[in-house]
Target: Hercynine oxygenase
Amino acid sequence: MTDLRERVARELLRTRQRSTVLTEAVDDGDLIRQHSPLMSPLVWDLAHIGNQEELWLVRDVGGRDPVRADIDHLYDAFKHARRDRPALPLLSPREARAYVATVRDKVFDVLERVPLEGNRLTEHAFAFGMIVQHEQQHDETMLATHQLRAGDPVLAAAPPPPSTVDVSGEVLVPGGPFTMGTSTEPWALDNERPAHLVDVPAFFIDRAPVTNAQYAAFLDETGAEPPLHWSRDPGGWLATAFGRTAPIVPDAPVVHVSFPEAKAYAEWAGRRLPTEAEWEKAARWDPATGRSRRYPWGDEDPEPHHANLGQRHLAPAPVGAYPAGASPLGVHQLIGDVWEWVDSDFTPYPGFAAFPYREYSEVFFGPDYKILRGGSFGTDAAACRGTFRNWDYPIRRQIFSGFRTARDRSPGELA
Ligand SMILES: [Fe+2]
Model:
């Protein structure tokens, strides 16, 4: 096998291990149950992962016969809203596990034989990369379902690293054009493409995401609604995460806030949310070369010392915990920890072309969705890049969502 085939095989295996952890942590009753009307039963996510893998890699790329064409409609996310999925005649946990294993065996056979060139779907193993990212995205969704599940803790992980540097305050990002999006990242999805120049006027941006302590000060002064999973205790705010309730960690990024809540905080602080272009410029633009890099720290793939990704920890790390992941301008924790709401709708870049299908991104474009950037502690590195765009309804907060703030540079103001 070539290096690329080996890499794809490794990514598929690593990703399936995560799906297995998330679905074997609970019993069959918990797999079938709907833990929130916002979420699918975990057993739906599992079989849907297998069904998408079958559609794209077994049938389309591999040209093989269907494994279970009869269940396609049950696992088509466009046919059934999440709240309706528990009532469907879904595969049982045992059947779903057998189904995803059968599909995966065929996929490894396809991976050994199919030429990884000659058409856009197989070039650089794109379709395999898309399916890895799809499974990782559902793993993050399943992690959010675990967070909504009532009952004893079933997931465990080491605590995130402590803060080691002071990251208070803001940095000036100088005005001028930068390259947004990508035309070269092999596994980038259609909505991240193509690379294009955007002129961004000078602005200031927080060096770190807004913390629990900062958000608590806002709540105390305004009486605003606390984040999802917070509760009041005589001693202060508590947060429940994956079945464990503890006092909030003051210097960790606030998580589980909606877009309007993030915006209200920014206004209270005399600031605003960054736009999507501002966020990406802060994350990728290198003032020394004028080039946009893949990540804030450079072009290397994320390593554990760069960012809190991949469910290695079950919480955002305190701000200042990842100095090696900072951007050249000194903006920290743009990647990992919490998804960051930005004040931009989900719109296509100039020159956008739907690929490989309209339902991936194009049908979601418009003012109904707001963008989130940077990934969370529950996002895998395979599904997180400086160019990666996530989108959701502004009211959503069961996702691992936080934010940082920004402001315009006043006329005549220097850094
Ligand atoms: Fe999906």
